[in-house]
Structures are given as C-alpha cells and as structure tokens.
Amino acid sequence: MKVLVAGGLGYIGSHTCLALQKAGVTPIIYDNLSNASINVLEQLKHISGKDFTFVEGDIRNQALLEQVMQEHNVTAVLHFAALKAVGESCEQPRRYYDNNVAGSVVLLDAMANVGVKQIIFSSSATVYGDPQYLPLDENHPISATNPYGWTKVMVEQILQDNCQADAGNLAISLRYFNPVGAHPSGLLGESPNGIPNNLMPYIAQTAVGKREFVSVYGDDYDTPDGTGVRDYIHIMDLAEGHVAAFLNHKNDTSFIAYNLGTGQGYSVLDVIKAFSKAAKNEVPYKFAPRRSGDVACNYADASLAKQKLNWQATLGLPEMTEDTWRWQSKYPQGL
Ligand code: NAD
Ligand code: WQD
Q1: What are the strands, taking DSSP E only, across the chain?
Q2: I need a surface site. Which of 16, 28, 173, 208 has the fewest CB within 10 A?
C-alpha cells in the first residue's frame, strides 16, 4: 500500500511517515522544502533503518503530482503541505491563499485525473474560531479569526463539495489541537524559523539558553491559574492518529472531520513547570500582556476519533516536555 505524503518532510508529516512505514504503509514523500530541511530525510532513514522515496515538488505542480502518483500507484494522499504562521498570514494573505487553498485545488485536480479518491487533510482546531462551548466537538460552528484559519475553513469546504460532486471520493479532515513534542529518539522534532510563535518551541529555546525568558501572555484569564489553557497533543500520538484514519475509516464515506486532541487542557504555567522538571532547570518566565487574538481556553472532545477510528492519545505532558527537551538539547540549531 502506497500513499503520497504532501508536505511529508515537515514537522507533523515526517513523524507520520515513520508511523505509516511502521504500520506497513509506504509513504511517497512530496515536499517543496519551503519549510523543511532535506536532512530530515536522512533522519527518517536513520531512525527506521529503511529507505524512503522523496520527490522535491510543489503541490501547485499538477503535472509532477500526476506523474508521481501514477508512477508509484498510490491509493491515497495525506496532505500536510501548507504555510502555517498565523501572523505571517495576516501580512501576506494572498501568499497563504495561493499556497494553501489554490495548492489544495491543484492537488485535488491531480488526484481526480489519476483516479486517487481518498485524501486525509491536515486541518486545525483553528476552524472553531472563538469557542462557543467547551469541550469542542466536531459539530461546533466553523469560523476563523485570521487568513491562515480561513485557508483551513475554505479547504474543508472544498473537500466537502468535492465529495458531494463524486460519491466515490472520501475526505477525512483531521483537526489538530496543539501539536508538540518530538520523536523519543531525539533525532526528529520541530525547528521553527526565527523567533518561535508557539509556546513549546519558545520554552525549549529558553531552556537551552537561546532566549532569555518566556513571556507568558496574560495572567488574568478565567482559568485556574489565570494563564491560557490549551489541549497539547504529542506528535507521536498525532502521527498514530493519521495511521488510524487511513487504516480504520472503513465505514466513512464522503467528508468527515475528526478532532485529534487529548481532551485535557493545560495552562501556560503547567507547561513551563513540566518543562523545567524535564530539563532539570527552572525555565525563566515573565508575565506579559495578553496576545491579541488569543482565547482563554481551548480543548477537544476527542471521543469521535476514539469511537470510529479506534484512536486515542496516550502520552501526557511529561512525555511531551521530556521528548521536546531531548530533541532541543541534541539539536539546538535544528537539522
Ligand atoms: P511544517 O511547515 O513543518 O510542514 C509543512 C510542510 O509542507 C513543509 O515541509 C513545507 O516545506 C511543505 N510545503 C508547504 N507548502 C508546500 C507546497 N506548496 N508544496 C509542497 N510542499 C509544501 O508544518 P507542520 O507543523 O508539520 O504542519 C503540517 C500541517 O498541519 C499544515 O497543513 C498545518 O497547517 C497543519 N497544522 C499544524 C499545526 C501546528 O501547530 N503545527 C496545527 C494544526 C494544523
Ligand atoms: C499556546 C498558549 C498563548 C507563546 C496556534 C495557532 C493555531 C494552531 C496551533 C495551526 C496561549 C501562550 C504562547 C508565548 C505564551 N496552528 N503563549 N507565550 O495560539 O493555541 O495556537 O498554534 O493550525 O492555529 O493559532 O498556540 O503555542 O501559540 O499558544 O504565553 O511565547 O501559550 O497565549 O495561551 P495557539 P501557541
């Protein structure tokens, strides 16, 4: 069984390629290297002891996509390829809509032309906009608060319409909560460009001495300790979620969305505390004003994925922080 993994050298895609291969599914990795290092490929080989097929290409290159899918006889596409920086998407919206939305349409065109009917799409809890209730289930109204978020909302709509138009099409949209952590080997993880926007990489870079302190955005939220609460999910659990979606979706047809989260919320201070324990060193932090656009609290109702995909997260905050620390201290500059 072969699948095309678009964006397969990125943070989530690369971990998923390892999980797929372990499960007996061969990933054909397709990535334009816009936000990944080619060294990731060597790490995949090193960790697994297996070879991986890699094609350098853009999802907006329809001819190349068709050629690769045909040559390798793939039966499905896992689609991770996207730009993902929220702030950047506000500054460069057309670039985001072109890459993420137009790119997805080209990918669907290519799939239609070569008869590949299944796609698993990297969506996000960002499609729930400002939560109207918690925990967030898949029926919560869809919205967005920034162009990046809108690209996810739009692609989900396109996938739904594409399934409506052809009853043979299947689209599984996986709505990730906050992916964190690294491969337990310490050989693979997230290496953001420049100053990290997200909490866990910022804490990790502070712990390793690259940043002076963590700014905790807001201490007066309506949460147990006043800091923002999120549903962090370990990258290894998230990777397994994709394998489960691919192998266990037997009864799904058309378009379906699944939350991939733990269902458990942790505050910013919880994460800093756990990281300090993992790194055996206090991570310095200072309180700062709230970050615009942030919500107080966000966590998943992940019961649908458990019930229908037989998947649930198994790793907690200790593993998330210990594995991030192992990766960060081994590769402080990334790959
Ligand atoms: P990432 O940037 O590490 O991975 C994305 C990969 O796609 C990169 O390797 C990049 O080079 C590639 N890519 C981008 N545009 C491409 C194009 N036009 N053609 C071919 N390759 C292209 O990001 P990630 O964190 O691994 O995220 C993967 C997916 O999950 C994205 O769709 C992202 O929006 C989504 N997601 C991420 C998070 C998160 O917090 N990391 C949360 C929710 C959803
Ligand atoms: C988590 C908590 C911050 C940094 C973002 C995207 C979302 C999704 C995942 C892709 C919040 C606080 C953060 C810092 C802090 N990506 N924080 N100091 O905002 O929940 O989600 O990434 O789909 O679309 O918006 O994640 O890691 O940025 O923040 O105090 O230096 O940490 O205020 O409470 P977020 P995050």
Answers
A1: 2-6, 26-31, 53-56, 76-79, 118-124, 170-176, 178-180, 214-217, 229-230, 232-234, 254-260, 266-267, 285-288
A2: 208
CA of 59, nearest ligand number: 1
Q: To 10 degrees, what angle do helices 317-330 and 199-207 make?
A: 50
Q: Report yes or no: 85 and 10 within 8 Å, Cβ to Cβ.
A: no
Q: Which residues lie closer than 8 Å to 31 by C-beta, 6 or more apart?
A: 6, 7, 8, 9, 10, 13, 54, 56, 57, 81
The ligand 2 atom nearest the CA atom of 149 = 24
Question: Which pLDDT value is given to residue 40?
Answer: 98
Q: Are 54 and 41 in contact (CB under 8 A)?
A: yes
Active site residue 148: yes
| Preceding omega of 135 cis (within 30 degrees of 0) | yes
Position 253 scores a pLDDT of 83
18 vs 23: CA distance, rounded Å: 9
Candidates 148, 176, 266, 331; catalytic one = 148
Distance between Cα 267 and ligand 2 center (Å): 11
Terminal Cα distance for the chain, rounded: 30
The tally of CA atoms less than 13 A away on the side-chain side of residue 295 is: 17
Say how far apart CA 290 and CA 218 lie, in whole Å.
Answer: 4
Q: Give how far Cα 29 sits from Cα of 21, 45, 55, 103, Å.
A: 12, 13, 6, 16
pLDDT of 30 reads 99
pLDDT at 138: 98
Q: φ, ψ for residue 112 (rounded to 5)?
A: -60, -40
pLDDT recorded at residue 252: 78
Series of mean pLDDT values for 10-residue runs along the chain (335 residues): 98 98 98 97 98 98 98 98 96 98 99 98 97 97 96 98 95 98 98 92 96 98 97 98 94 92 98 98 98 94 97 98 97 92
Q: With 0-12 CB in 10 A as exposed, 13-18 as middle and 19+ as buried, what is 73? A: exposed
